[in-house]
Amino acid sequence: RWFHLYPDQKLTYKDDLHWTGRSQNWNFMCAECHSTHLQKNYDAAKREYHTTWTDINVACEACHGAGSQHISWAKQESGWEALAPTKGLTHLFNDQKGAHFLIDPHTGTPKRSTPRITETEIQVCAACHSRRAQLFEDDRHGQPLMDSFRPALLDAGTYHIDGQIQEENFEYGSFMQSKMYKEGVTCSNCHNPHTLKLKAEGNGVCLQCHGAPQFDTPKHHHHPAGSTGAMCVNCHMPSKIYMGVDERHDHSFRIPRPAQSVVLGTPNACNQCHTDKTADWTAKQTKTWYGHDPVGHQKFAETLQAARSQTAGADRKLIAILDDLNQPAIARATAARAMTSWLSQETVMVLAEHLTDDDPLVRMGTLDAMQPLPPGLRQQLVTYLLHDPVRSLRIQAAQLLADVPLENLSEADRSAMEKASGDYIAAQRHNADDPSAQVNLGNFYLQRGEFAKAEATYQSALQLDQKWIPAYVNLSDFYRQAERDSEAQKLLTDGIKLLPDAAALYHSLGLVQVRLKDLPAAVVSLKHAVALAPTDARYNYVYAVALHSNGQTPQAIVAVNHALKLIPNNASLLELREQLRAE
Question: d(Cα 305, Cα 175) in Å, to the nearest integer?
Fold first, then answer.
């Protein structure tokens, strides 16, 4: 049905959310998941779409792939016998073949009769039911998800530190965190993909596998039978409303942990219903029920909090999560990527071990962490991933090695590098209507020393979206490397006029002013950045250093102390404070 997304806002064409803007563009934002066999066909030179599709809605081939051979099999046309094993389909959803869940009569807990050895169904669903970047057209041939897509990790702002849903991130990233995923559950155990309905009503969908005497009882849920508190989903799959009308459940199937809410400030299902109660009250209540604070499968919240606030010692916690094979791969990958702030001989050795991790998501996070390493070390560690079986990882390796001279590689690696580099460029050009892809491409060209191409693609990003902050930041950094700081200063000043609340632009401008030896102006710009993003540790650090360099050491100490009130135990700021006090 049609409804107004922003009924209380008067949006003009100048607003990003206006229907004429990029954020509401059907070809760019919606069509891939809401139609069948979409070919976006964006012409970057003309900035035009020539998009085609076979069905304007989600039809059979959106999931099953091309159906012509399936029809031949069904009609038993010539050669149909050869198609019989697959029924003429491009791939089979056989993740549940021969499997069922056995319920322990004493505990009521289920166990799958045979392990799940494939997840074709899950990955096909995830192509749309995930927060991800699309790198290539998805031909629905049953290829691994990460051949064409790059799933989002547990990013700040998108997920809470314990992995609960925050922004719109769909179901896959949550489901990957669940014990149910680990034990072999697939999407169609609960959902009928053809009717779009659950397999059973109410708690019945859960009781397909979980014993009713043990779980569908007040002894378990501690609420009156038939009440909202007795509904499994209300405790284990709390929901949020997205797009104004779409109620979406968190698919991590977690045990509510109000005691964790008290310590870490994370949400919990109990207080989403009992809004008149505090987390302390809820924690005491659940401890009374069970004799202990409930714990769950996901055990990474404290680690991600330490990483996000850059707390001293967070690297040890991150290593522990990365090494724990019982933790969800999406959490381990997030821990790996977070180590980019703690690169040392020890952490690099740990990361190197996980470049061969069985899960491609962990390999992706590990590669992300290696971006700041020197080219020689990146070459030593990353080169063999140019041959990784997953395409998105091959192109990620190529991006990491873009500044390594080809003559430094063996003939086989050089050939793989050229192929993967071509795929990387193709992936960014597939998304040429997205300014972030233009910035990615500009960075790639810059690493390869193709300076004219780099500058042109940064400019293209700004032409697509003059409010795209990373384009300003990266183009100004390009000007720095080209010793064109006066152009960088003008670029950032113009950007600030358009985006007066962009902390990143003030920070970049301050760095430019430092290079132009205008330290008083730099201090003012860096102070603006801190005021707009007070919990950004790097902005606070650079601002304090600038104050010190400007002969304002007491003010620098005050600035660091103020920052530490907002981001306590930050290792870099604590070390800086000691250095400033010693002078």
Answer: 21
Region at 188 (left for phi over 0; alpha for psi -120 to 50; beta for the rest): alpha
Secondary structure of residue 509 in the 3-state scheme: helix
Give the three-state DSSP class for 117: coil
Distance (Å, rounded) from C-alpha 398 to C-alpha 187?
A: 34
Question: How sure is the predictor about 196, in pLDDT bands with cuts at 50, 70 and 90?
Answer: very high
Which tokens in the block code for residue 152?
A: 């989002």
- What distances in angstroms separate CA 30 from CA 58, 245, 333, 378, one per listed residue? 12, 17, 28, 37
How would residue 197 be classed by pLDDT, with cut points 50, 70 and 90?
A: very high
Query: What DSSP string describes 17-58?
Result: TSTTSGGG-IIIIIHHHHSBS-B--EETTTTEE--B-SBSS-
**H or E segment and range at residue 435:** helix 435-447
The pTM assigned to this predicted structure is 0.94
- On the question of pLDDT at 266 being above 80, the answer is yes
How many angstroms separate the CA atoms of 511 and 537, rounded? 16
CA pair distance 81, 385, nearest whole angstrom:
40
Q: Name every residue whose Cβ is closer than 8 Å to that of residue 302 and which is 6 or more positions away in sequence.
A: 264, 317
Residue 184: pLDDT over 80: yes
Burial code of 125-138, b = ≥16 C-beta within 10 A, e = fewer?
bbbbbbbbbbbbeb
Please give the C-alpha separations between residue 429 and each of 40, 44, 128, 563, in angstroms, as whole numbers.
11, 8, 21, 41
Of residues 31, 28, 6, the one with CA closest to residue 18: 6
What burial letters (b/e) apply to 417-430, b meaning 16+ CB within 10 Å? beebbebbbebbeb
Are the C-beta atoms of residues 520 and 488 closer than 8 Å to each other? Answer: no
Identity at 233, one-letter amino acid code: V
Mean residue pLDDT across the chain: 95
DSSP 216-257: SSHHHH-S-TTSGGG-HHHHHS-EEEETTTEEEE-TT-PPP-
Which phi-psi region, left, alpha or beta, contains residue 439 (left: φ > 0; alpha: ψ -120 to 50)? alpha
Whether residue 141 is predicted with pLDDT greater than 80 in this model: the reply is no
- Interval 86-120: pLDDT, tens: 899 888 888 999 999 999 999 999 999 999 999 99
SS3 assignment, position 337: helix
- In the DSSP assignment, the letter for residue 205 is G
